[in-house]
Write a structure and sequence with these properties.
The chain contains 13 helices and 19 strands. The strands form five sheets. Strands 11, 12, 13, 14, 15, 16 and 17 form a seven-stranded mixed β-sheet that branches. A four-stranded mixed β-sheet has the order 1-10-9-8, with helices on one face. A four-stranded antiparallel β-sheet has the order 4-5-7-6, covered by helices on one side. Among the domains are: 112 residues, Dipeptide-binding Protein, domain 1; 201 residues, Roll (Dipeptide-binding Protein, domain 3). With 493 residues, it is an alpha+beta fold. The chain is globular, with a radius of gyration of 24 Å.
């Protein structure tokens, strides 16, 4: 039998060449569906900001690891008082910002006081609400005293909203971010990409990549074409889950499916109009068919939720039965609320495909019970201005990707305007409690309260479905926070 040695040799050579190519590569192009409105995580709510700069450009005192654990960052160690009211952070020495400025405890004091200030535009200002005083003990030591116990403060300062900035460069961070991270900002081509380069003066372990480009591709079809053509090396949150089966069958790619902290909700304006009536909110919740939305908008990727809490969290309670799909019940509740002839609501949708696709399905489901919707598709900046800040909406669909963020329901001025005092008291109890079992019990009660008040329509937990060149290693599988952390990413040798 004759062997085709030429073909075998050619195939082997191609494999070796590909491997050599990976070993030589020190650049990467990451695809993202949304372009950030700015690059300062301390003054914007958009997840896309952190997806570019978290752990790459900016660092906090602590940081999230890929498994959700809290790790040291600019603070190498800390001590916490027995009553969890005093935190002493010991800072790393020899750290410099990308512009050469030295990092000291004064920068920590400035960053947190700026976030707490009256003029602050920090989207998570509540993270700092418990801080009473910030004392610079010496250039490498800062003592933070809280007004009350907070066993979760180390988690608070791991958020992207709590990164440390320098007073001299902070005013330009929106377009020219200056941090302490392993990558430095290179340039931003608006509407196309952001480029980072390796920080040769980084205080920690050097990263494997010399250059990282974040490429913004809003159209799912274009995203698919870019991956297939090799114009993009990885798309950690791929916007076209219906095409994943094609990537799975292609040996050039790996499909990465994990979990996120993203509770996807049909948010309702509790503050005014017909949605201030719990019966109307409940009617909407019963009109919604979660499985139809997951299958139709996410092609089966996603976990149904009945409250604002991640199913992978040990404290999660499955409350989907409280708002089970029941159109007849929805119609009864609407009549009981005085809407015999139905009603019309505005449904404002941000750009992500889960919102746009899901919005069409939700509109159809609501129409079936007598609720007409006027759909408006908004760009991200417009959504942030009109819905998030302006509270000028009836319904919207959005994924809340911040970790452990059920406490947003304790903020009466938050965009869906819940403001139940009993819930606020629960969150106060949670903050003051360090006992693990007690915290779980409080979280369970909190989940039941917002589910029973039908604050929002709780749809599904967003899955993390990514695609990457098979030669890339070190990308996060799960999303414990909204980030494309490239600090451990490299090409296979």
């Amino acid at each position: 039998m004759r062997r085709n040695t030429g073909t075998t040799f050619f195939a082997a050579a191609m494999i070796l060449a590909a491997g050599a190519g990976w070993a030589q590569r020190s650049d990467i192009t990451i695809g993202m569906q949304l372009e950030p409105p700015n690059l300062d995580p301390t003054s914007g709510a958009a997840a896309a900001i952190d997806e570019v700069v978290y752990a790459n450009v900016f660092e906090g005192l602590t940081r999230f690891g890929p498994d959700g654990s809290i790790l040291p960052a600019l603070a190498e160690s800390w001590e916490v008082s027995d009553d969890a009211t005093v935190y002493v952070f010991h800072l790393r020495r020899g750290v410099r910002f990308h512009d050469g400025a030295r990092f000291t405890a004064d920068d920590v004091k400035f960053s947190f006081e700026r976030a707490m200030g009256e003029e602050s535009t920090n989207a998570q200002k509540a993270l700092f609400a418990g801080i009473e005083t910030i004392d610079v003990v010496d250039p490498a030591t800062v003592r933070i005293t809280l007004s009350g116990p907070d066993g979760g403060f180390l988690t608070n300062v791991a958020w992207g909203d709590a990164v440390i900035v320098d007073v001299a460069s902070v005013s330009g961070n929106a377009t020219n971010p200056v941090g302490t991270g392993p990558f430095a900002f290179s340039r931003w081509v608006k509407g196309d990409r952001v480029e980072l380069e390796r920080n040769a003066s980084y205080w920690g372990d050097p990263v494997a990549l010399d250059k990282a480009t974040f490429k913004f591709i809003s159209d799912p079809t274009a995203a698919f074409a870019a991956m297939m053509a090799g114009d993009v090396d990885a798309f950690p949150v791929f916007p076209a889950p219906e095409t994943l089966i094609q990537f799975e069958a292609d040996p050039r790619f790996s499909v990465i499916v994990g979990s996120t902290e993203g509770e996807t909700i049909l948010a309702m304006n509790n503050g005014s109009g017909p949605l201030a009536d719990r019966r109307v909110r409940r009617a909407i919740a019963h009109a919604v068919d979660r499985r139809e939305i997951i299958d139709g908008a996410m092609f089966g990727y996603g976990t149904p939720i009945g409250t604002h809490f991640a199913p992978h969290n040990p404290a999660y309670v499955d409350l989907t039965g409280l708002s089970a799909h029941d159109p007849e019940k929805a119609r009864e509740l609407l009549k009981e609320a005085g809407h015999v002839d139905g009603l019309t609501l505005r449904l404002l949708l941000p750009p992500p495909s889960y919102a746009r696709r899901g919005g069409e399905i939700v509109a159809s489901q609501l129409r079936d019970v007598g609720i007409r919707t006027e759909i408006s598709n908004l760009e991200w900046a417009q959504w942030l201005e009109q819905v998030f800040r302006g509270k000028d909406f009836d319904l919207t669909i959005v994924s809340h990707t911040e970790p452990n963020d059920i406490n947003i329901y304790a903020r009466p001025d938050y965009y869906f305007q819940y403001g139940e005092p009993e819930f606020q008291a629960l969150m106060d109890d949670l903050t003051a409690t360090s006992d693990a079992a007690e915290r779980v019990a409080i979280l369970e009660r909190a989940q039941r309260m917002i589910a029973g008040d039908y604050v929002n329509g709780f749809l599904f937990q967003l899955a993390k479905t990514g695609v990457a060149n098979v030669g890339i290693k070190g990308l996060w599988e799960n999303s414990p926070t909204q980030a494309n952390d490239l600090t451990g990413v490299s090409w296979a040798e």
